[in-house]
Each structure stands twice: as C-alpha cells, then as structure tokens.
Amino acid sequence: MTLAEPRHARPRHFLMCPPTHFDVTYAINAWMDPGKPVDRALALLQWERLRDLYLDLGHRVDLIDPLPGLPDMVYAANGATVVDGKALGARFRNPERAAEGPAYLEWLRERVPQAAEAGEVNEGEGDFLVAGPWLLAGTGFRSSRAAHAEAQEFFGRPVIGLELVDERYYHLDTALAVLTDDLVAYYPGAFSPGSRAVLERLFPDAVLADAADATVFGLNAVSDGRHVVLPAAATGLAGRLRERGFEPVGVDLSELLKGGGSVKCCTLELRWGR
C-alpha cells in the first residue's frame, strides 16, 4: 500500500441522542468527576455540530428521544449493536445506566426485523465493533466474555475477543477505531499482550496511536472509509491517517468527554443489511 492510496466514502446510517439531560452526577469511569460542572448548553452545541457534520458528509442521522434521569443516554453507541438487520440490545454493568438498554431496544424493535434483549452484560458498540466479517469484542471492564459467545450466536459472525487492561479505556471504542473493513487504528497500551498479538496478526498494517492521542480520545472516532471524524486534539493521529490516504475531520466534544465519551460514543451505526 502506498501512502497516498485513494480512499472511498460510503454513506452510513447513524442513530444519535441529543444531550438534553447530559450531566455528570456519578462516576463509573476514570473520566467522570461529579465535582466538575457541566455546561449543558455547550454540550448540546458541540453535539449539534457533530450531527450536522455527518449530514454534510452525506450520512443519514436518526434521533432517539432522550429520557429524563438518563444523563449518559447521549452515548448512543452503547445502546445496542446493529448488524445485518439484527439488533442486540445492551445490558449495562452499572445500575446507573440500566434503563438505557430497554429504551434503545424499544426504538429498534419498531424498525429492525430481528431485535433481542441481551442475556449477558454487553454495552453495545462500545465493546462490539464490526471489521469486515468479524465482530471485534472488548472485555475487561464492561462487557462480559459470555457476551461474546452470545453475540456470535445471535449474529452468526465470528467474534474476536480483546482484553482491555487500562481503566481509562474501559470500552473497546475508546482504544480502537475501525477505518475500513480490513484496517483499524488502535492504542497498543490499552490491550493485554495476547490481545496485542491478535491485533498484530489480524491487522499488520494498522495505524498505531500513541498515548498522547489516546488520552484525548482520538480513537473514539467514526470512519466512512474516507473521512475519519475524531477529536480535534488528536493531531498526531490525524497526521498518520492523512499519510494513509484518509481525510481526518477534527471536532470538539470537550464537554461530552467529561462523561467519558466522544465521537464514536455519540454514534450508533445502523447496519440494516449485509
């Protein structure tokens, strides 16, 4: 592959949830501090800019109504996994987020031919990322190993389990981004030695992020195959993506990072068919 290999965008279909009730009133990850005030108006403005960017790039965005008392519902990626016209709802580990799973599943059941409630702890696309024929599946802090087997049976796709070992990167989508069907970017320090070896074997040409990019949530990104929407502060990663033929598009979601989420966390992809 040459550094200037052309990339091609494919229109995507996303589900998002406005941060109407966003706040940090509890701490269930290393980024949350209830002592730091949240500017909800700024969070909404930043979220709207992300939504508008998706629309400008030619993608479709559907919205789910935010529910009072669920400040983390803005992180739509955690609500479910939708692949091949099937939706597997989330079952959250923390009781503070438990009601989000049924809310997202109710929305999906009206639109997806086959939707099911998870029996095991899984936090949707936070820990399940589609890469070609595979589901890359994170565990270590949130989704259980048993959820990997459940997802494989439900979707009929091979699931590749990956162990997260740094509490700052508690979901797979905070440490790894799928760029194309056969290319990912990831931060090696977030994974166990065995999982790093798996990633090196599956994706020998992967884009590697350093600690500076990871700590600004640079890997919590969304790619359409050409454009990679990521936190604007991840300048090093943006440069490496540009060298590989992608067009990085930086956005500021600093208020939503106070809850431990950024671009990908706010974005659930709806994959209606194969």
TrEMBL record:
This is Amidinotransferase. It comes from Actinacidiphila polyblastidii.
